Protein 1
Amino acid sequence: MAAAEFVVVANRLPVDRVEGPDGEETWRTSPGGLVAALEPMMRSTHGAWVGWVGQPDVERDPFEADGIHLIPVSLSAQEVAEYYEGFANDTIWPLYHDVIAPPQFHREWWDAYVTVNRRFAEAAAAAVAEDGTVWVHDYQLQLVPQMVRELRPDVTIGYFHHIPFPAHGLYAQLPWRDQVLQGLLGADVIGFQRAQDATYFLTAVRRRLRYEVKGANIAVPQDDGSIRTAVARAFPISIDTAPYLDLAANPAVQARAAEIRASLGNPKRILLGVDRLDYTKGIRHRIKAYGELLAEGRLSVDDVTLVQVASPSRERVDAYVHLRDEIELAVGRINGDNDTMGHTAIRYLHQGYPREEMVALYLAADVMLVTALRDGMNLVAKEYVATRVDNRGVLVLSEFTGAADELRQAVRVNPHDIEGVKAAIMTAVEMTPAEQGKRMRSLRRRVLENDVDAWSSSFLSALDDARR
Ligand code: GDG
């Protein structure tokens, strides 16, 4: 393989390793926000993708899959525990999501994070062509921009941060706060989901490193005494709308949506939640509000059912084990108190589904509940809107998601305010078709105009500006 003009670096490769019955190995394109976002562009630019295969101790040579050149990075079981489950998912994730769960600080996790970030950076530096471009993704790899720059000062480096960046008072807790800022500042363009995230980052840079900041531009002093400019601003991510529109128009998917409604006893209203089972998503708050509406008799299981898809996530991290117990206790109680032989309060599904089934669920749902306590963007909100080709349905959307900046016609909620969530659910359930149509048309315009292609184009054009 010749050196690649364009190299994506992300924690995971966009494929999953599948072992057949006779131990033979195949690779299946894996679902997920980032993959969906970058796949079309990777194909059109013949780029390379550096990432982990998702299983410990798997060492593989680079290979092609679906027209993308993949460069696997190997992680030992201990590195998975310390770099990935530890520092990324039990230190940075909770800290950057407003310490909804307490972040764990361990020096050996940090050491593993540095070691693994260096391995990714070396793989990217070896793959990229002279004067090429490296685009680093997300909180698992915050040190990679600076490490690539040290190895390859000729390349242009972008970094996109998919999760929130915290306010300085929280960020300052991180024992390695200055090193992480320096790592990110190795990039020419540092992209965030929301303007607020970029502002928090710029504040941290100014307060901790005392670098000069003017608007979105940061003056980064170099070893040789010169100054390099890095840009930090918002590039709100979106979805690849085409597959959602296609599936929404597909008669088989529409029939499946009707079948889902029928199998729930054709309730007057179906409410839907779709989340990775994560404490940032506000699943408990949503269930609590809904349970109280049933208990108060403002809703009845004869009329309304909540379908909650909670796809399994990070099941080896303690906080996620506890969260699952709490949610399942709450679901069991609410169903026990309210179910009848023919109707259930909550159809709880701790499973992952193919995209066709997700779209059928979106089509079946009258109300989509997105009540995240903190979320970088929340693509589920955009997927729901994209599939509503009939301009019906109501999106209830937490103001603590990135999506709330754009989707102004949603019913906005503060998920911490349980009475407010209850009121929002009632507003959604009772909304007239005319009002639904008015709001949904505006939401759809926004999502269809600002799709993932618009996102990647605007990031890449900022990188082009940086190159000049
Ligand atoms: C991070 C940030 C940011 C979920 N369950 C199934 C399934 N999904 C899909 C959804 C959606 C994706 O996974 C989840 O994306 P979100 O944006 O909602 O949330 P995170 O996973 O936390 O993503 C987030 C995102 O990165 C992108 O920058 O928006 O804020 O936290 O596409 O549909 N898909 C299928 N079956 C499932 O069971 N097929």
Protein 2
Amino acid sequence: MKVRPALTTVCTVLLLASARQAASSTGSPFYGDAPDDHHPWAVHDWNRPQPPRVEPGAPQEAKPPADALVLFDGTEACLEKWQPDDQKKGKMWVIKDGAFECVPGSGYARTKEEFGDCKLHVEWAAPTPPKGDSQGRGNSGIFMEGLVEIQVLDDYNNPTYSDGFACSVYGVSPPLANPLRPPGEFQQIDIEYRHPIYKEKECLDPGYVTVYCNGVLVQDKIQLEGSTGHMGRSKPRPFPEKGPLKLQDHGNPVRFRNIWLQPLPPRAGVDPGIHGPLTVEATMAKRKEIAAMVREDAAKLKDPANPVPEMLRLMESLVYEKEEKTAATVDHMTGQYVEGLKQLAADKVGAKKDEAKRINGAFKYLAKFNIVPADYAPKVELEKIIKDQGWDKK
Ligand code: MG
């Protein structure tokens, strides 16, 4: 009876020591930057919930779309696209069984080409049998622009701090789920990455990342907080236009395959992009550009014997930009057209029915959108001709 409390004490001390040891290598307590006004958890906080397990569907072979830039397809030729990140070490990862394998100690592998916003497909497999635990088991990383790490880690059966879990935005955002396959099997990762955009010191778009792991959404358009790092709270900042894709050497022979990338279109409003709602300034610039293109096309249709196609195309250009010179040309051409119609012999007018109605439709459209006034003289006159000829009746 006297021994038991002493034994309990010894066991408690051992357990605490072991917990402390684990904490020293894997995170909290008193480890990463503390909670703050926007982060209820510390960086690498073990009190942050573990991602729930979601069983992935059966693996399906993924193939690069035609517009993808293939960075690794298992062939030696692809090594040309990669180089050691640490040129002094000068050691390169190796191809084994068609996979790009990390050689521990060689440093990160990086692409020679640099990329900005992109969609990236990567497949990775952790070593088997598994060795180590927490951050020590099958650790690597996919570094977008060399700055933002999407964690690679064998968490199939391996708890770790959740903001360092596989598919976390490392130190920032734990994955929504754990859909990992066992070590040795390839995980299919799809990343959509948008980097921060600044104009001088003003942040126009903080950037974000969306990640799917084995077809399961694990990062849902997570806002970036600058580049990622260990223990420290990352801070928003401007990024370079482009950066290399880097794969991390964390001392484990993690294997990669099927790596391909598609650049994403520029964002509307912040980049000179046209996908999505545009600012007034950007919209007007684009409309001007379209109008110029339509006018250029109209010039090709110039035909004194049949001016109608050119006239209609010029009228169309006014929808995008009411350029004074073009508006005056349209006034002149439509006025002449209506005058010509009025002068036409009675037996020849009938042949103009469809054409006149088409031009009338264009007038109506331009008036509806206030590009010409409702009482625009050629429009009023043409309407009268159409009525007099009975073309307005069905
Ligand atoms: Mg890592």
